[in-house]
């Protein structure tokens, strides 16, 4: 069976683990990112999704790689996280974050939905911060709330097509992006895990398995899936 995964940002972290999971299931995997996914079976298309002109440059190559699959899964994984508050947020920073986290997924939807047959799916990677907020991450919080709204709108627009969609909301996950955001401060990690019911960070492979499950089960159409090991309520 000709099954294809198109995923953005599969060079590391959750994206890399997701690419590996779909390869194990027999999918052809196409990664869209500036850096390649080093898994040898992955087809890499070097794309800067922050560039508003990427569609003009890469649409033909993308559609050639995708072909006419029997099932197509599209995972919107690439994201940017910045540090700022409502008082300090620059307009250009917000534009860049929204370009990658929200605008690029919309463009990919428009390009690839015509190639989707019954049983295909679109999975948005939102965040725990798509459901709540913390200080000093203003643009990212806004964009991840938008991703959930985008998923809900996708569900309504695709009614009757038998293509389904869901949003996976990872909690604190042991990725390069989290490490860069938090810095090398063990006490910060201790504070984080103290608020998690399982007292540890999620692993990229666990999130990848959640993405796989969501993409294969149309009963989850329109669902928001918290993948955070349980948050301790205070």
UniProtKB/TrEMBL annotation:
<comment type="similarity">
    <text>Belongs to the short-chain dehydrogenases/reductases (SDR) family.</text>
</comment>
<dbReference type="InterPro" id="IPR002347">
    <property type="entry name" value="SDR_fam"/>
</dbReference>
<dbReference type="Pfam" id="PF13561">
    <property type="entry name" value="adh_short_C2"/>
</dbReference>
<dbReference type="InterPro" id="IPR051122">
    <property type="entry name" value="SDR_DHRS6-like"/>
</dbReference>
<protein>
    <submittedName>
        <fullName>NAD(P)-dependent dehydrogenase (Short-subunit alcohol dehydrogenase family)</fullName>
    </submittedName>
</protein>
<dbReference type="InterPro" id="IPR036291">
    <property type="entry name" value="NAD(P)-bd_dom_sf"/>
</dbReference>
<dbReference type="GO" id="GO:0016491">
    <property type="term" value="F:oxidoreductase activity"/>
</dbReference>
<keyword id="KW-0560">Oxidoreductase</keyword>
């Amino acid at each position: 069976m000709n099954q294809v995964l198109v995923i953005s940002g599969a060079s590391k972290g959750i994206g890399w683990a997701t690419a590996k999971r779909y390869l194990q299931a027999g999918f052809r995997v196409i990664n869209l990112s500036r850096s390649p996914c080093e898994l040898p079976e992955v087809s890499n298309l070097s794309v800067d999704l922050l560039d508003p002109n990427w569609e003009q440059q890469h649409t033909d190559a993308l559609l050639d790689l995708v072909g006419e699959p029997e099932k197509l899964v599209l995972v919107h994984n690439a994201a940017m996280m910045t540090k700022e508050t409502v008082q300090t947020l620059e307009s250009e920073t917000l534009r860049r974050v929204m370009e990658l986290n929200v605008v690029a997924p919309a463009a990919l939807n428009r390009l690839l939905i015509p190639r989707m047959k019954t049983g295909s799916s679109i999975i948005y990677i939102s965040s725990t911060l798509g459901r709540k907020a913390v200080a000093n991450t203003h643009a990212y919080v806004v964009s991840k709330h938008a991703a959930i709204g985008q998923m809900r709108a996708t569900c309504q627009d695709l009614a009757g097509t038998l293509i389904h969609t869901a949003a996976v909301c990872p909690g604190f996950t042991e990725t390069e992006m989290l490490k860069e955001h938090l810095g090398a401060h063990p006490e910060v990690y201790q504070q984080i895990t103290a608020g998690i019911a399982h007292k540890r960070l999620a692993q990229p492979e666990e999130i990848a398995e959640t993405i796989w499950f969501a993409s294969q089960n149309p009963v989850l159409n329109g669902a928001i899936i918290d993948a955070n090991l349980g948050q301790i309520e205070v």
